[in-house]
Amino acid sequence: MRNISLADIFVIRYIIFMNIESSSLLSRTAFGILLALSLRPRHGYELMQQIEHDTGGRLKLGPGALYGTVKLLREENLIEEIPFAGGERRRYYRLTKKGWDQLGAELRYYENTVKLAQERRALGGSFGAMKWLA
Hints:
Helix content: 40-55%
Number of helices: 5
Radius of gyration: 19 Å
Structural class: mainly alpha
Largest sheet: 3 strands, antiparallel
Order of helices and strands: HHEHHEEH
Number of strands: 3
């Protein structure tokens, strides 16, 4: 009988987590939209600004990428358009219950990924510092 290491247990838990929590990860654009909408309902231009801010300028969306992804997120019932009582012609969006659930699953995935990277000392530039496990 083989002894099971702590690393084995972590890998098993990780695989189970991935199969239960999320069958597929969202694109960076879709994730950015859900994260931006977690603050409050927003219109398209606000979404573009918030995503650029949240990513430190690494992800700058144009209207085509934004509205194409918004359309997909609406079709998946992750976000919904809401009426705005200000007379503006802008379309505002908010997360649905399913959207909140998906965002939570994505955040748990990334949280676990960061923990794994820290355990492997893959963050902070100390690559190769951990011995290979047999």
